[in-house]
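Example record for the data management plan.
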Amino acid sequence: MAQGPYGHTVTTSLTWQPVLNGADVDDIVSLLAAAERADGTGPVSEDVRLTLRPDLRIGVGRHLLAVPAAAVGAPGARRPIIGYAHLGGTIDSRQAEIVVHPGHRGQGIGRALATALTEALGDPPARLDVWAHGDLPPAAALADRLGFARTRVLFQLRRPLTAGPQLPEPHLPPGVTVRAFVPGRDDEAWLAVNAAAFADHPEQGRWTLDDLARRRAEPWFDPRGFFVAERDGRLVGFHWTKVHEVDETPPPGTRPGPIGEVYVVGVLPGVGGAGLGRALTLIGLRHLRAEGLAAVLLYVDEDNDRAVRMYTGLSFTVHTRDVSYHWRGPATG
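Corresponding structural encoding:
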């Protein structure tokens, strides 16, 4: 059961599933598409979308499905999924995302999903952070009512590639060369640099071979747009670009089309300071422009002052914001 906003009872059934079947995946994908059309932003992260595979069991967290209670146990009935939450992360620090179908909002389903997430944390409870994409007022209001605090903001920055400010020439530090990533050969070296470059990042620095393999298996993966920098045969930096077939949040008044992404840029600590990150960024941007992309996006933490300065210095501007809310624990007293 879920409690509606005016005290009425909403007959919704919540079910935890470690593995999804094909029908579940189809329903969740349809739910995400409906939410995206209504909100103008993707409702879950790429990490969560990569877990939406039938029978995927390893390292993907747990899925919480909300369906109308009337559909549960009905002979031959298809259970429409009207709410979804994903719980991942580590044992002591959990990451979650929640989405409710636009046609079923205001019925207490979001509250029920969030409450179920907090109840799944154990005793003593693990840390829980829930991402809300697009910084939408209803999500902020729900977070406040349930005792979540706004703790982290992720900017989506954008800039045009075929119009507007020109792209400067990249200037590599002395002794550094750049080539394309070679799948299978560069995996371990790249993971080591990624881990070192993002040692303090709560998601990026924890990538494993499985995380890399899942992305290499995606249709968008193209090693031609995955640049690695070397000095004396040692990998010291990288810029991995990505192409989205359709822009999820096009500027008002424009038609959705493909858009490039500065997927991730990293430099081995101790070898930067000579403009390597900026040079790698420009190399990737020029590649995306040569591929015919008219614009590019990237994600960066609001409090990463150094990176924000570099990107805004390259004419990127804020397009949207995603917000992470931290659960402060059950009420006391």
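Summary line stored alongside the record: The first strand starts at residue 2 and ends at 3.
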